[in-house]
Specification:
Length: 237
């Protein structure tokens, strides 16, 4: 179920409101347990494998904290072992709004994690979340220094962190790429581990809808053996 489709809106001026693309209820992959996912509009990256291109170019819908929280609370009975995930787009671009939403949900006993691209190391927002899911975007760039900076802040705060990585054949499945990812993983307190996500093309319809060509259209999808190899490499087996 999705709500809040893209629509023109004014610029965000503070934490009392923000801009989101949609809400998805019933996710079992965006964090622990069953979750409501809030997709923030706007992103500071343009990853060629992005599965949510609609969040990149639309301004989103202006939404107040109270209105968003009330919509989320409809699903509270189903979130006993889960919670809410702020995703995107990039939630760290709307720091004040994200913090306000987290604090408002905390008053109702609803935990919130954040999915991020790890490019904005904001200590206040990191500390506000129950835990962080940091997706390492190493498909076109082998420089992981931004993630070192982000994870160093997480280390200092004692934040719970899970790393994710979209494994794309011929792009970031080489031994060199996996070695760099392994080094990053072992250099920080990644308490929640690392999870490889197989590259898929389920987003093709979204690209067609916004009249954009999917940059990785000709790239093969990842198979189970690709994921198993990457997992064994990272674990040192």
């Amino acid at each position: 179920m999705k709500e809040y489709k893209n629509a023109p809106s004014e610029q965000n001026s503070g934490g009392e409101f923000g801009y989101i693309d949609s809400i998805y209820s019933g996710s079992g992959v965006d964090g622990k347990g069953l979750r409501v996912v809030v997709f923030f509009s706007g992103c500071n990256l343009r990853c060629p494998f992005c599965h949510n291109p609609e969040t990149l170019f639309g301004q989103g819908t202006r939404t107040g904290v109270s209105a968003l929280v009330q919509k989320i609370l409809r699903y509270k009975p189903y979130l006993k072992r889960g919670g809410v995930t702020l995703s995107g787009g990039e939630p760290f671009l709307q720091k004040d709004f994200a913090i306000a939403v987290i604090r408002a949900l905390a008053e109702h006993g609803v935990p919130v994690c954040i999915e991020t691209n790890g490019q904005i190391a904001d200590a206040e927002l990191i500390a506000a979340a129950e835990y962080i899911i940091c997706d390492v975007k190493n498909q076109e760039n082998a420089d992981l220094s931004a993630y070192d900076a982000f994870l160093s802040v997480c280390d200092a705060l004692g934040a719970r962190v899970e790393l994710t990585n979209v494994l794309v054949p011929s792009k970031n499945d080489s031994e060199a790429a996996l070695f760099a990812l392994q080094k990053l993983y072992r250099s920080h307190r990644v308490s929640e581990g690392i999870r490889f996500l197989p590259f898929r093309k389920l987003c093709l319809e979204k690209y067609e809808k916004i009249k954009m060509q999917f940059p990785y259209f000709d790239v093969n999808e990842a198979e189970e053996e690709d994921i198993l190899y990457a997992e064994k490499y990272i674990s040192g087996i």
